Amino acid sequence: MLRLVRESRGGTQQYAARALGAFGDTADPDFWSADAFRRKLAVAPPGLIGVGTARYDDVPVVVEVVSQPPVDEPQGWDQVVEASLELPSGKLAIDGCLSYEPTTSPHIELAPGTYRVRVYYAGQNTVDEDWYRVVLWPQSPYEPPRILRQQESSPLTHPG
Q1: Residues 122, 51: contact at Cβ < 8 Å?
Q2: pTM value?
Q3: pLDDT in tens, the chain (160 residues)
Q4: Domains of the chain, with CATH numbers?
């Protein structure tokens, strides 16, 4: 599960707790498909993204909301993937797959719409030093996930 370390929006920082997710069904048997395990990013369109982490515990994540796609290069990161996410309510739920509670899980308030979400993975081959950077920006229309940089070997394997 991801633990939100810092949310950055327009130069301000806010602290919150727990993980990244959005509204949807993580119990769907196709959610963590073989493709999702390979990407380390599960998608249940239009409103749920799951981030595969290197360990099953709270992990640090920095969430940034920007107006345009990042121009940084994926080199220097273990893996970089992105997917679209529709937020008709403008609320992005922050929580783990199994601990989401609509009334108590932390949320980030955004303008309603479709966003592109880019996830940067670091420390994937370490013990308890993995961390994640998640960048969101408005983007329409909805597009399928894509891998920008992939780690050669992954500690995650598909159970099937």
Answers
A1: no
A2: 0.79
A3: 343 433 333 332 222 222 234 445 666 777 778 888 888 888 877 888 888 888 777 778 888 899 999 998 888 899 999 999 888 888 787 666 666 666 777 778 889 889 999 999 999 888 888 888 999 999 988 899 999 999 775 444 444 4
A4: 2-149 (2.60.34.30)
